[in-house]
Amino acid sequence: MQAPIDKEQADDPAFRDRDRGGLTMGSIVETTLMSLDGQVRDPMRFAMPYFDADAQADALELLQAHDAMVFGRRTFEALGAAWEGQSGEFADRINAIRKYVVSSTLTEADWGNSQIVTGDPVTEVKALKDEHERGLVTYGHGQLSRALLANGLIDVVRFNVHPVVVGGDAEPLQEQTNAFTLTGARTRGSGVVVLTYRTKA
After folding, report:
1. E-assigned strand segments in 46-179
2. Which residue has better confidence, 33 or 18?
3. What CATH homologous superfamily does 24-198 map to?
4. Neighbours of 18 (CB within 10 A)
5. CA proximity to 126, closest of 141, 111, 147
6. Phi/psi of residue 174, each to 5°?
7. What is the DSSP-derived secondary structure letter of residue 133?
8. Which residue has the higher pLDDT, 130 or 175?
9. Is the pLDDT of residue 172 over 80?
């Protein structure tokens, strides 16, 4: 039986059923790990020391509320290398959840419950979004997420801003301007600030 959804979740656009007035209908939620100086590339090099019990509980809650995950190849391979074979509540969930990796070059997806998706990324992910009633989660803001955002397929963006300066040139989040609506802000004990934005009015 699905766990009941509390009022805070019900007020979050990531959990709303847009078509029936209920909850969790085909949304895509992006979670991006970011440094203070705007670095989002290869976030595990700076974010893992901050992935404490609070962060794991937050990540677990998000995955439990959704049907599946969708990634580009680089994120899929990095997360698979980090979590496959690990144990614990979050590890068990990310290893078990249905995972789609969008790639035209990947030939095998050995991480459990994973499927390679070929074809046009926007078209394929739109079909997945329509298929999964409780929606999808994606991690990172790489090429796939930028394409999905540009085509109106991402509904909620959650930036986890880490209290560390990485250095180097920050990769632009998006080529065009996107105006989001802030729906939540929370500071963890580790100093990570979680900012939640709705991408549509």
Report:
1. 68-72, 98-102, 114-117, 136-139, 156-162
2. 33
3. Dihydrofolate Reductase, subunit A (3.40.430.10)
4. 13
5. 147
6. -155, 145
7. T
8. 130
9. no
Residues 6+ apart with CB under 8 A from 159: 32, 34, 194, 195, 197
How confident is the model over 57-116, as pLDDT tens digits? 999 999 999 999 999 999 999 999 999 999 999 999 999 999 999 999 999 999 999 999
State which amino acid sits at residue 160. Answer: N
Residue 106 to residues 129, 148, 149, Cα–Cα distance (Å) = 22, 20, 23
Residue 192 backbone dihedrals phi, psi, to 5 degrees: -70, 130
The number of angstroms, rounded, from the C-alpha of 121 to the middle of its chain's C-alpha atoms is 16
Chain-wide mean pLDDT for the chain?
A: 85
Torsion of CA 119, 125, 130, 131, to 10 degrees: 70
Q: Residue ranges per domain, the chain?
A: 24-198
pLDDT tens-digit readout, 108-138: 999 999 999 999 999 999 999 999 999 999 9
Report how far residue 162's alpha carbon sits from residue 34's, in angstroms, rounded to the nearest whole number. Answer: 6
Rounded Cα gap, residues 80 and 73, in angstroms: 10
